[in-house]
Amino acid sequence: MIHLDLNSEPAWLDLGHGVRLHLHPLTTAMMVASRNDPAVAALNEDATDEESALVFAKALARNATLDWEGVGDGDGNVIQITPEGISALLDVWPLFEAFQTKYVAKGLVLDAEKNASAPLPTGSSAGATDIAKPVSTPVKTARKP
Q: Is 1 a domain residue?
């Protein structure tokens, strides 16, 4: 069963360390816009999964973030939100991980749920061949006295 969250209002997401992002809900439109982000499109075909995940997460954050709290410059002065600032924020490992697990992963939950019980007609065993061979001679068993 799919559980729909019909709330389409932006919400605050706590990333820890005093940082919060005010984000649009993660929707299909948001995912499509992020996939079409110039930074994502510019990825080399040989980019690693880690590189791709970072570039996509930054694109998604730039598209989804309306505001932030708890972000300042080197002197501790509050700074205004910018696309470059969002990218720099996600260069901080714990904040990136929190964004990935608390926001991005929600978009992947349905794939995980779908795959959990779906049949695997093209799975790893679909083209498997038998390697077991029948015993050519009958096995002798002990007779009861």
A: no
Answer whether residue 135 is part of any domain. Answer: no
Instruction: Give first-to-last CA distance, the chain, whole Å.
Output: 59
3-state helix, strand, coil in the chain (%, to 5): 40, 10, 50
Among residues 83, 92, 6, which one has the least CA distance to residue 38? Answer: 83
Cα–Cα nearest to 98, from 8, 38, 9, 12: 12
Tens-place pLDDT, residues 10-58 = 999 999 999 999 999 998 899 999 999 999 999 999 999 999 999 999 9
Number of domains comprising the chain: 1
Query: Is 101 a member of any domain?
Result: yes
pTM for the whole structure: 0.69
Contact partners, residue 56, CB within 8 Å, separation at least 6: 34, 35, 37, 40
